[in-house]
Every structure is written in structure tokens, then in C-alpha cells.
Specification:
The protein is mostly helical. Among the domains are: 49 residues; 33 residues, no CATH class. The chain is built from three helices and no strands.
């Protein structure tokens, strides 16, 4: 994403110092700090309201981990589904894993179009 090397950070600081000057720099830094703090407070309020509405929601760090590696999440969900399948096999009749032949397919394949000599429109000799 962003590759900020120490040299790039130093250039950014020098440009900011030149643009703002040493007199306005502390005031600007203070305003940025206040804005950052208010954004964090808003984030905490929204997160607490969402967690009140959805108590089973995973923690924020778990959600971030899931977003970084969705394959791990899919593997965990597959393991949970397999565990449920195994528990239903032990307790009751397992649901069929092979679709019923008499049931219509969920997705119907497209029918191929066959072209023959008679199905092509005749060419107009005046266009040649």
C-alpha cells in the first residue's frame, strides 16, 4: 500500500515545516490531535452501539484477522460444517450429500446452438 521509508517521512516533515513555519506548527499539531481524538470517540460510540445490537459479533481484532486471511476463515467454517455433519450422523439420519436425481438442477446449463447451412441467412448478391 504505502511504503514510507524514513527518508520519505523526513521529506514530509521538512515540507510541512516549511509550509506552516515554526510558529503555527504546534497549533496545527494540537488541532490534528483533537480531531484524531474525536474520530476515535465516534468510532468507539459506533462500535459500542453495534455490539449492543449484535451481541454475538466477534471482536474487532478477530474481524480484522478474518479480513486479512479469508482462506483461514473459510477453512474454519468448513471444519464447523463438517463437525455438524458428523454430529448429525451420530444423532440422526444424515442429510443426503448427493443431490436427488428427480429434483431439477439448481442451475440449468445453456443449450448449445447448432448452426447448419439452412439456418444461416442467405447472402445478398448485391452486397458483393
Amino acid at each position: 500500500m504505502f511504503d514510507l521509508s524514513p527518508l520519505k517521512i523526513l521529506v514530509i516533515v521538512v515540507v510541512i515545516l516549511l509550509l506552516l513555519g515554526p510558529d503555527k506548527l504546534p497549533e496545527t499539531a494540537h488541532r490534528l490531535g483533537l480531531a484524531w481524538r474525536s474520530l476515535k470517540n465516534i468510532q468507539e460510540k459506533v462500535e459500542s452501539e453495534v455490539r449492543d445490537a449484535i451481541p454475538d459479533l466477534p471482536s474487532t481484532s478477530d474481524i480484522a484477522r478474518m479480513a486479512r486471511s479469508p482462506v483461514t476463515l473459510l477453512n474454519q467454517l468448513a471444519d464447523q460444517a463438517e463437525a455438524r455433519t458428523n454430529s448429525t450422523k451420530e444423532g440422526a439420519a444424515a442429510p443426503p450429500t448427493v443431490p436427488d436425481e428427480s429434483a431439477p438442477p439448481l442451475i440449468t446449463p445453456p443449450t448449445p446452438v447448432r448452426r447448419t447451412e439452412s439456418s444461416t441467412p442467405p447472402s445478398d448478391p448485391s452486397l458483393n
